[in-house]
Design a protein that fits this description.
The protein is mainly alpha-helical.
């Protein structure tokens, strides 16, 4: 059996292609010159009846000028059309082990930023600054559904949900102030992302963007305890929220290039199965590893809340969060995947050109549908997490140690469920759309149960079971939403699609957090909103013409395919096709 040739180094391939382009241009110029030098009558200086010399010379000059003008017009039109378009896309190399380690490490160091730091830690710190425990007089008796709760245990919840921050005559709770700051950070990140998209796909130093964004965001995690005023947290949260969006865009773009490198020698059915196996393994394992970091930070946060000076304890947690996030720059140090496309002309893009390039995604309906699914999944999962946590503390009055157990199980259970789900996905040959449907169905069940039993007193065992099930849904939706969008991304444009993914996912999480924290005492409304979001996600995936194969075709990954039979979709194809199709070899 012949072995497949290894991909050539990108530098040598680029030089070879550029040399070929120069040779073609020189040949075309020589042919044009020869054509303009030949007289129209084809007899050199002696035309027919002896007068061809003057006649031929008279017609050669206008023909040459006309040809030159046509070449200039075509060249100018071609330059305008391809100013931001690659002439060719380099084949990507499979990721090396050190690159995989760095990519997984960044998932470990950054997953908790949007899942714990912004929705949990910062509201707790703002609560200590805006409403210290020494200035708070708890209710003499706190009764929930017939059960009397501890006054000390409910002190944090009451201060967290009380509207104690005055803004222009209105008052916000620490949860509301955190949500507002998060929303402003997302708005600030939007113009940055429009410019970053071009640099990710056309630049040569993408790793510097990751290092700069991570360093910038982690720096503000160190400052949270210096100034004991609520207003300064607006800048902390918006800067951290903007930085994590940019950094996650780079992280997602690198995933797309690694997947393309792992499937560089495949086509048709083999390419589909190879991409499916490699992409799901990378993302599922990265999500599971990220849950470990979130669980560690949750345990550390609980430990520091037991101290007398809770503000200083939470500040220490924020410092460690920034340090761990900063370790993630190793991903940028271990790998640098420069632009895999070569520009057709020497072109210096301006602001509007970069803005136009960042809107490339709107020309791909499959990508738009996958983005809508990403937004709805992020909204539903964050809404369930936030409302479930608030309901467990203030609606069920469970002990703080059980809240810690709840968080640890929520973040650590995907470490078991997601790796087990990967071989099942390969066996049943489920693509990213079907896996997202599975996640939405689980969210639909969890949110529906929360809404239906909102008036009942839940036991700790019920909450733990719900947390285990929902954690799997969160991991599935987080992983396969990214895969589907990258499948819809044309080669060489992963950066433009990745910035949209990061922006939309963070926006959905912010809106889900705001919806759940708007009425902490009314869990039924939050669960109903999550139920609606999950239901709409299912509708979009089923009736929104979103297809994994369609996304690959529209993105140009399956060029030259005549019909779906060559993709292995015909009847009668058994599981033996998987063994020799490259799906198993697509594992990293």
């Amino acid at each position: 059996m012949s072995e497949q040739p290894l991909p050539q180094p990108r530098s040598s391939m680029r030089e070879a292609l550029e040399k070929e382009d120069k040779e073609k241009a020189a040949a075309a110029a020589a042919a044009t010159k020869e054509k303009s030098a030949v007289p129209k009558n084809g007899n050199g200086g002696n035309g027919k009846n002896g007068g061809g010399g003057n006649n031929g010379g008279g017609t050669a000059a206008p023909a040459a000028e006309e040809t030159t003008r046509e070449i200039q017009v075509v060249r100018e039109a071609y330059r305008r059309e391809t100013a931001a378009t690659p002439a060719y896309v380099m084949p990507e190399e499979p990721p090396a082990m050190v690159e995989l380690v760095g990519w997984y490490l960044y998932g470990f160091c950054s997953y908790f930023i949007t899942h714990l730091l912004l929705p949990v830690l910062f509201p707790a710190i703002i609560t200590q600054v805006a409403f210290p425990a020494s200035d708070f007089t708890p209710d003499a008796k706190y009764v929930v559904k017939g059960a009397t709760c501890s006054i000390h245990e409910m002190s944090m919840y009451q201060r967290l949900t009380r509207h104690s921050i005055a803004i222009d005559g209105s008052r916000l709770s620490p949860l509301g102030w955190s949500g507002l700051s998060w929303a402003i950070g997302i708005l600030i990140a939007a113009p940055i992302l429009t410019q970053a998209a071009h640099h990710l796909d056309r630049g040569q130093y993408q790793s510097l963007i990751l290092i700069a964004a991570t360093s910038f965001g982690s720096f503000f995690c160190l400052l949270t305890g210096f100034f004991k005023t609520v207003w300064v947290f607006l800048f902390y949260i918006l800067f951290i929220g903007s930085a994590i969006i940019v950094a996650e865009a780079v992280h997602t773009r690198n995933l797309g290039l690694m997947i393309r490198g792992l499937a560089a020698h495949d086509s048709g059915k083999h390419l589909v199965l190879r991409r499916r196996a490699a992409a799901s393994q990378l993302t599922l394992y990265c999500t599971a590893i990220g849950g470990i970091g979130a669980a560690l930070m949750a345990a550390f946060m609980y430990h520091m809340l037991r101290r007398t000076d809770q503000l200083t304890g939470l500040w220490v947690v924020s410092i460690f969060s920034g340090l761990i996030w900063f370790i993630g720059i190793c991903h940028g140090l271990f790998t640098n995947r420069p632009s895999s496309s070569s520009p057709t002309t020497a072109f210096e893009p301006n602001f509007f050109t970069k803005l136009s390039y960042s809107m490339t995604l709107v020309r791909y309906p499959q990508a738009i549908g996958s983005l809508v699914a990403v937004f709805l999944s992020s909204f539903a999962t964050m809404c369930i997490f936030t409302s479930g946590t608030l309901y467990a503390i203030g609606g069920v009055c469970i002990k703080p140690v059980l809240v810690l157990v709840l968080w640890i199980l929520y973040f650590l259970f995907p470490l078991v469920s997601l790796p087990l789900l990967h071989p099942i996905q390969i066996i049943i040959r489920a693509d990213a759309v079907r896996m997202q449907l599975l996640g939405f169905i689980i969210c639909l069940f969890v949110s529906g149960a929360g809404f239906y039993f909102k008036s009942h007193r839940w036991r700790a065992a019920h909450i733990i079971v719900i947390a285990l099930v929902q954690s799997t849904a969160n991991g599935v939706l987080y992983s396969f939403g990214r895969i589907l969008l990258l499948d819809a991304s044309p080669p060489g444009k992963e950066g433009a699609f990745a910035v949209w993914y990061a922006f939309v996912r963070c926006t959905g999480a912010m809106i889900g957090f705001a919806a759940a924290s708007a009425g902490p005492g009314r869990a039924g409304g939050s669960f109903a909103a999550a139920f609606l979001g999950s239901f709409l996600g299912i509708i979009v995936l089923i009736f929104g013409n979103v297809s994994n194969i369609g996304a690959l075709k529209a993105a140009g990954h399956l060029k030259g395919m005549e019909d779906e039979k060559r993709l292995g979709m015909e009847k009668g194809e058994g599981m033996s096709a998987v063994a020799d199709s490259g799906e198993g070899r697509g594992r990293v």
